[in-house]
Amino acid sequence: MRHGAKRVVGWGLGVLLGLASGCGPSQTGASTSTKRGSRGDALITRNETLYPVADTHVMEGSPTTSYGALTTLEVDGSPQAEAYLRFAIPPFAGTLTTARLRLHALDSSMDGPSVRNPPGVWNWSELTTWNTRPLWSGSWVVADVGPVLRGTWVEWDVTEAINLQRNTVDVFLKADDPDGVMFASSEHEDPTLRPRLVLTIESAQDHPPPSIPPLPVSGAPVAFAPSADAFVSADAPGTPSGGASVLLRVGNTPQREVHLRFFLQGLTETVQRAVLRLKVGNDGSANGPSVFETRGAWTEGSVTWNSRPARVGSAVDRVPVLTPSGFVDYDVTNLVRGNGEVSLGLYGNSTDEVGFHSREVSTQRPELLVWTGASRSEPPDACMTRQELLSRTFVPLHDTSVVQSSPTTVFHRAASLSVDGWPQAESYLDFDVQLGSRPVRRVLLRLYALDASGNGPRLFKAQSFEGATTDWNHRPAISATVLGDLGAVSRDQWVEFDVTSVVTTSGRHAFALHPDAQEDLRFASLEAQKRGILAVAPQLLVLSESESFCSYRGGPRPSGTVAWVTQSGGLPAERTRHVASGREGGYVSLSAVEPLQAAPSSFEQVDVVTLHGADGASVWSREFAQAGVEFRKVAVTSDGQVLAAGEYFGAPNLGKGPLPWGRGMFVARLGTSGKVEWTQGYIAWFETPNVFYENPMEVLDLATDAHGSAVLVGTFWGYTNFGAGVVYSGKSFPTEGQSPNSFLLKLDSDGRLRWSRLLVASTARGTKASSVAVDSEENISVGGWVGRDTDFGVGPTFMNGLFAARWGVSGNLLWSRVFPVSHGDLHGVRTLPDGGVVFVGAFDGNLTFAGHTYSSREPNDAGDGPRDAVLGRLGPLGTEEGLRHFQSDASVSLSFQGLAVDETGRIVTSQAGWADLLGLGPVGLPEGQAPNRPTLASFESSLETRWVRVLEPLHSGLHLAPVEGGIIAAGDLANPFELDGTWYTPTSRRADVLHLKLRP
What range(s) does the Carbohydrate-binding module family domain occupy (predicted)? Predict the structure, then answer.
């Protein structure tokens, strides 16, 4: 905050509702009950019970009489009688999942009334009569019931009638046949019988990020028995257990540890998952042990407490609740990388000792289950023919729970699926599955556990059902065959059932979860995801083998083949931000390491700048863990120093003192050993006499020249000062429907201002300078989107469109070109050896280039519609020399992501979409089967396609950097990835950085 002014704080839109006034008596007696969960739990469910602020009925036989003061509500079909109720909705935090109207019946009816909710009909009060009743056209039925019994509660699901934009809800009851019925009103002498509206509100605001689902493995595991197992005890430190015990005991009173060793052999592919499975003895635990890696020599017959191996690192897995005679699976994938020895230890977390069966009990001995990738080999032919494991995920058509103690209540709107032995609760899921024509390898049902249990449910096949009509009395029939039986389950864990044997045809497939223990266990439902509470809906995962396809076209070989691959391997997730060329075949990379799931929510990501040698190995690496900092771009100077730029908030110290307080951007230079040599910070702001706005700045690209200058483009709002005085962007502060204008900034090698230029449009969409490149003569080329009235240096332009412009060393404009079009972006520019410019972008509308008009798929749509990709070339003086338009249609499209020019002057791009559009014929799988596959392509400087290569899915676009002898492509590895016959698997199922060097 500056000058004592008020700082602007933005609030998100939540569910915050005011109470209505002037519509009947004030509400008294609203109550709250917490059904499940407490603060910090995975899912908090609570019920809010509301009572009417007004209710009445009107009768056709007494058209001028009001009944608002009566103790009853009457609904009848002959003569007609209608009842009306109004409830005030108080403010609440969370998500409304279900609203149930409950009325107490004072007599019986063969067919109870229906609830109506005509929109905009609120003109009634407790003084309303038949003659003044509200009228509407249409039925507007939101809920109905069947027979009504005297002395029972009747319930309607009126969730669809709740409009959270209003602070009240009105419901109208009309008879469906002549048989009338009477209910207790809000004036009834017995308060316990009065009408009520029960709101079920659910929240997961304190839930940590959901755990990562298991990797989708395509085959059965290989089971390994231990080569040695034993337990050691602190109360007998020099005495071995002899390795002959049938139980392996672990606990803290006395301290006892279990040690296991496995020897893996015969694995021919990369490990994708590994699970330690143990059978629990007769004594369970509510606080089970943790699994660690261990190191050190030991033998089963002689190991003691004093000679035991040492544990290494942090716990790999833990399952807290263990049921006697149950089993437990520990995920140890991080410790099993292939053939060889694996040593594991179990360490107690409480005095509650537990025993596991040892290898001396052959039928219940420990197992290490290992899944590997499907067998692959390097493609031998010219088009690199290969197959791919395709994964398709289906969410339920319906899912619900049924509860024996509430036999007529429907729970299909709940955010969780409950399974319990007492009171009995079961859950059902129904999927509509399309298997396709290819052979299915596996079908897996995945559920996300919200609670821990020592003995998870059993799974059965069930008949298809409709969620809205399924209660305990009308639950689906199930088959007698148990498809799966879960053992111990941890909270916030994905569990998995293999249902391949029963999902053999396309169509409806339903499943039932029945309890195997008397403890409540909840799984996230589809409703939790649909309503934005938790994005962990049940999944049916179908894994199938694709047909053979060409993954490469063009040439000449070995162009486009991979020289080497590197993969990061830390436990936290690491994601690629940027790569840039270095010296002598090396390069620099920028990545972000995410906090572990167990880390406090205050922990932020760590930005990592790494200088690599020509073989991809790290020369040095520097971490920046300061809060409020986002590194965006890096570059390497001709002297081997590294420039970095990004955004910040506050006054972080990146190594050379605090940056100016505020919100803005920074530039830093790191020396040849990674030490920070200087930093510069710039803030953006706008202020009125009463309010100071801390405005955002954004770094979009960074380049350098032969003298080590830093050249940046980006955007900002309001004012800033680059060192030559305050300048204004033309846009005061972020406003809906507006976008910011841009800057071009050049700093010398010591971080001092050389010059800057603002690109300011008068249009709602500001000018956006997206990309910058510096040529051998140190001229600066910039590309992006330009708005009307932008001045590149010779006066305002009078059109919108894509643009490219070039400035000289001292900031003088050399040329500018605008390509008129309604919508689009030019998001990559690079310079060619002859001084020309190559660019990639996308547009919607009619694009004019070199006197020719190119039309997108829907050129005349009113807004910004589907965009077509373009690759273009300009001459050294900005002449429009060539453009390739990659025409999309409703089913196929292409979008460029990365752009580089290799040492020979050829163009390399990365893109997602249908690679056939690149012009070399069929390559990759059809877009409908495998959409948005990462693709690499090379073009001559004339824009003619040289080669195209399609890769397996990655979790990011590919960033490109030219190096001696090829191109570096960097992306995020978050699923098993096969390349040239070798599988690459992410560490700890999160994300690793993958670097490929492609031959030019």
Answer: 49-200, 222-370, 393-530
Residues in the chain: 1000
In this structure, the answer to whether residues 343 and 237 fall within a common structural domain is yes
The β-bridge partners of 735 are none
Cα 953 to Cα 105, 590, 970: the distances in Å are 59, 21, 13
Q: Which of the listed residues 544, 576, 601 is the one where a domain comes to its end?
A: 544
Residues 6+ apart with CB under 8 A from 159: 96, 97, 98, 99, 413
Angle at 920 between CA 914 and CA 925, to 5 degrees: 35
**Residue 58 near residue 208, CB atoms below 8 Å:** no
Contact 579, 590 (CB under 8 A): yes
pTM reported for the whole predicted model: 0.83
Structure tokens at 659: 């940056």
Record the tokens describing residue 289, joined without a space: 């042990």
- Tokens 């990639």 identify what position? 840
Q: How many CA atoms lie within 13 A of 266 on its CB side?
A: 7
Helix (H, G, I), strand (E, B) or coil at 469: helix
Rounded to an integer, what distance in angstroms lies between the CA atom of residue 861 and that of residue 410? 45
- Bridge partners (DSSP) of residue 911 are 896, 935
How far is residue 694's CA from residue 252's CA, in Å, rounded to a whole number?
54
Tell me if residue 210 falls in helix, strand or coil. Answer: coil
Whether 405 and 367 map to the same domain: the answer is no
Closest to 200 in 3D by CA, of 395, 418, 490, 430: 418
Looking at residue 518, which CATH number applies to its domain? Answer: 2.60.120.230
Averages of pLDDT over each 10 residues, the chain, 1000 residues: 32 27 39 44 86 98 97 96 96 92 97 93 96 92 94 95 87 92 98 97 78 82 96 94 87 95 93 95 93 96 96 92 94 91 96 94 94 86 92 96 96 96 96 94 96 94 97 97 94 94 98 91 96 94 94 93 93 93 98 74 80 98 96 98 98 97 98 98 96 97 98 99 98 95 99 98 98 98 98 96 98 98 97 98 96 94 90 98 94 94 96 95 90 95 97 94 97 93 85 95
**What CATH number has the domain bearing residue 247?**
2.60.120
Residue 518's Cβ-side half-sphere holds a number of Cα atoms within 13 Å equal to 2
Query: Which among 399, 385, 402 has a CA at the least distance from the CA of 431?
Result: 399
First to last CA, the chain: 52
Reading the block at residue 385, the tokens are 């023919």
**Residue-by-residue DSSP string for 577-605:** EEEEE-STT-EEEEEEEPPPTTS-TT---
Structural domain total, the chain: 3
In b/e form, how buried is each residue of 125-164, taking b as 16+ CB within 10 angstroms?
bbebbbeebbeeeeebebbebeebeeeeebbbbbbebbee
* 527: enclosing H helix or E strand: helix 526-530
Q: Among residues 519, 544, 569, which one ends one of the domains?
A: 544
Q: How far is it, in rounded angstroms, from Cα 882 to Cα 861? A: 26
Host domain of residue 237 = 222-372
> Which residues lie below 8 Å from residue 556, measured CB to CB, with a gap of 6+?
none
- Asked if residue 169 belongs to a domain, the reply is yes
Cα dist from 901 to 271, 322, 613, 997, whole Å: 37, 59, 20, 14
Tokens of 167: 């602070």
